[in-house]
Amino acid sequence: MATFQTSAWPEIEALRERVMKTNAGSVEEAAQDFALAFASQYTSVVLARVFLVLPWAKLPAPERETVSSLAQASKRLFDNTPVLTLLGTAGRETAWRDRTLSQGHRAIPLLDASHVQGIPMVAKLLADLEVDFSSLDQGSAVETRRLMGGHNGAFFVPDARETRDATGRHVIPSRDFVDQYAVRTVLGMGGAYADDTLAVTVIFTDEVIERLSAGRFASLISNFKMATAAALRSGRIFRAN
User: Fold this and answer.
1) What is d(CA 85, CA 54) in angstroms, rounded to the nearest whole number?
2) What is the distance in angstroms between the CA of the first residue and the CA of the last residue of the chain?
3) Which of 18, 57, 61, 65 lies 20 to 30 Å from 85, alpha-carbon distance?
4) Is 12 exposed, middle or buried (0-12, 13-18, 19+ CB in 10 A)?
């Protein structure tokens, strides 16, 4: 049985090959394949999700409406407001295998630094990926300090039950989710395309994983970006209806 903690390069290369062989016609379809690849190879995966950070104006109507509702008609919401947008999802529950069924994570507006700091997991995710929070206050696209030029970043929560941020809040705030599914280590990876669009994958597991072992998966986000770069450039982000 493959585990993240004990995976050697053959298991990681199997994931890499699956990502690179995708024939998906859109970034969304490739993201769904990417999430499913983790869920099918590792039984410890409770939930795997793939996001892009996109400007509000480029989202389909349902996502724009979701953001507008969350922002409560905030004066901080602009066409170029970055939105953490769910494109792929796989997990143990049926509702976790269809991004349109997501109740709280389908589209998360990054209104400004203060707003993001109020969402513990998103705040740590973006901090781990070295996002410049001051760019959020300027109402501009998300900027990262080191993810340009093919570099990757890693997101890591060693124990979802215990890990807290600097203010004492649980980084994974949904305690019912953590308890019911025995969520332990949460890992992720992120990287920017040539146009600075940020791609992020977050994986919740019931496995205890050391940081060094989790870090071996970070380079897979580069393969995802390579496999989807043409679709992103041509505007084929979402699945055609």
Assistant:
1) 7
2) 37
3) 18
4) middle
What is the phi/psi pair of residue 70, to 5°? -65, -35
Strands annotated E in the chain: 45-55, 82-91, 107-109, 152-157, 186-192, 198-205
150: its two tokens: 């093919």
Q: Count of alpha carbons within 13 Å of 168, Cβ hemisphere only?
A: 0
What predicted TM-score, i.e. pTM, was given to this entire model? 0.93
Are 83 and 57 spatial neighbours (Cβ–Cβ below 8 Å)? no
Helix (H, G, I), strand (E, B) or coil at 21: coil
pLDDT in tens, the chain (241 residues): 689 999 988 999 999 999 998 888 999 999 999 999 999 999 999 999 999 999 999 999 999 988 888 766 566 788 888 999 999 999 999 999 999 999 889 999 998 888 888 999 999 998 888 887 777 776 556 656 555 555 678 999 999 999 999 999 999 999 999 999 999 999 999 999 988 899 999 999 999 999 999 999 999 999 999 999 999 999 999 998 5
* Sheet bearing 82-91, strands edge to edge: 107-109, 82-91, 45-55, 198-205, 186-192, 152-157
Contact 27, 87 (CB under 8 A): yes
At 235, list the tokens.
Answer: 């505007």
Q: What is the dihedral sign for C-alpha 166, 68, 112, 217?
A: positive
Q: How many helices (H) and strands (E) does the chain have?
A: 9, 6
Cβ atoms of 169 and 120 within 8 Å: the answer is yes
